[in-house]
């Protein structure tokens, strides 16, 4: 169970979401230590694919936690920096992995990012574990990164040293998420369109002989832009086929090889909670659905701290401290954590 009870003035899911994505940039002394120890690395994922990561190691051997940002985010997204700082302060090694074309990595690969590119993310996670995860590893993903994290846990090639996964507000039904963005408050559509257009412009600048996104940049909805890019720059016959490839359907859950904890909010304005609620728990999946929390926010009080930043270090400390790595018991860690 994972339930927050913010004061009434902070219960708006839209306020929660905006505060988490914009207002909470600082990570204090832990954030400064994280930045001071950070090293940018490039991981060879095979078949000529390369992904970037920002790694913060520790002076003594420690478990590794890989952090996956959301769609159009980066290693420097506020939620990513805050939780990474909290984990690093707690003694973990941290690798903030960048999805293809995110952050400043548009020039690393010729082919365009899409959300079905799971094999390269698995390869990157495995590569990071090989370099830094000799004491065991965990995986933490937000939003689309949470979707990737769950699929990594179900992938037959996942490294056995990845002992547990925490997915915060993961995308479950891509079509429902796109509809929520396009049909909800205009700020969400504006926000994602602005960032997507910027990402496409960076890709075009990196490979001008390959891409011309002039027509794409004029489209005014996430659905229309997805249809356009899928039809012209992917291997999928249509958008429905593309969505089906990365939706978190029950067959993905049934294939889990690593214990997974999903944390979501019933009032999430971006990820409809009905998708999470429709998933069936198994021995390797636990689902915690809070009444409040917005999208990846879970702000409890006027100090504007996220419960995730406090809960994640304790969750991974409990799981990665288990004598038997990968034990299903790791997924049952109770996330009802106070600061006391």
Mean pLDDT, as a whole number? 90
Strands across the major sheet, in which order?
Answer: 1-2-4-3-5-6-7-8
| Structure classification | alpha/beta
The percent range for helix content is 25-40%
Distance N to C terminus: 18 Å
What is the level-2 CATH architecture name? 3-Layer(aba) Sandwich
Provide the gyration radius in Å.
19 Å
- What spatial form do the alpha-carbon principal axes imply? globular
What is the number of helices?
A: 12
Q: Give the CATH level 1 class.
A: Alpha Beta
* Helix and strand element order: HHEEEHEHEHEHHHHHEHEH
Q: Please describe the biggest sheet, giving its number of strands, its sense, and whether it closes into a barrel.
A: 8 strands, mixed
- Can you say what the CATH homologous superfamily is? Alpha/Beta hydrolase fold, catalytic domain
What is the name of the CATH topology?
A: Rossmann fold
- Tell me the β content: 5-15%
**What are the segments in which pLDDT stays under 50 over at least 5 consecutive residues?**
322-334, 336-340
Number of self-contained structural domains: 1
Number of strands: 8
How would you characterize the overall build of this protein?
The protein has an 8-stranded mixed beta sheet, sandwiched between helices. The protein is an alpha/beta fold and 340 residues long. The chain is globular, with a radius of gyration of 19 Å. α2 (28-36) crosses α3 and α3 (78-89) packs across α12 (307-320). The chain has helices spanning 13-23, 28-36, 78-89, 118-132, 144-154, 174-183, 186-206, 222-233, 239-246, 250-254, 273-277, 307-320, and strands at 38-44, 50-56, 64-68, 93-97, 137-142, 162-168, 260-265, 285-290. α5 (144-154) links the parallel β5 and β6 (162-168). Helix content is 39%, strand content 14%. The chain contains 12 helices and 8 strands. The protein has one domain (8-331): 3-Layer(aba) Sandwich (Rossmann fold).
């Amino acid at each position: 169970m994972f339930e927050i009870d913010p004061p009434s003035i902070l219960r708006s899911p839209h306020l929660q979401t905006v505060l988490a994505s914009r207002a909470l940039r600082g990570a204090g002394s832990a954030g400064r230590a994280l930045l001071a120890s950070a090293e940018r690395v490039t991981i060879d994922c095979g078949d000529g694919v390369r992904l970037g990561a920002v790694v913060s190691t520790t002076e003594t051997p420690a478990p590794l936690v890989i952090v996956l940002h959301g769609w159009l985010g980066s290693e420097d997204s506020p939620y990513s920096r805050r939780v990474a700082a909290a984990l690093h302060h707690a003694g973990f090694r941290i690798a903030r992995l960048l999805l293809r074309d995110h952050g400043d990595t548009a020039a690393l690969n010729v082919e365009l990012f899409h959300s079905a590119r799971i094999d390269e993310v698995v390869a990157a996670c495995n590569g990071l574990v090989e370099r830094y995860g000799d004491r065991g590893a965990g995986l933490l993903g937000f939003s689309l990164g949470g979707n990737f994290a769950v699929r990594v846990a179900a992938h037959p090639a996942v490294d056995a040293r990845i002992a547990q996964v925490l997915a915060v507000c993961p995308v479950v039904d891509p079509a429902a998420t796109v509809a929520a963005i396009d049909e909800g408050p205009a700020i969400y559509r504006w926000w994602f369109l602005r960032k997507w257009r910027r990402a496409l412009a960076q890709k075009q600048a990196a490979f001008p002989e390959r891409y011309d996104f002039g027509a794409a940049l004029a489209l005014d909805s996430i659905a229309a832009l997805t249809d356009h890019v899928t039809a012209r720059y992917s291997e999928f016959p249509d958008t429905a086929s593309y969505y089906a490839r990365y939706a978190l359907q029950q067959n993905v859950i049934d294939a889990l090889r690593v214990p997974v904890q999903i944390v979501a909010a019933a009032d999430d304005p971006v990820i409809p909670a009905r998708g999470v609620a429709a998933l069936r728990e198994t021995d390797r999946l636990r689902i915690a659905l809070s009444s409040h929390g917005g999208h990846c926010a879970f702000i409890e009080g006027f100090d504007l701290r996220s419960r995730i930043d406090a809960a994640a270090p304790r969750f991974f400390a409990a799981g990665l401290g288990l004598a038997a790595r990968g034990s299903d018991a790791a997924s049952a860690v109770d996330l009802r954590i106070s600061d006391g």
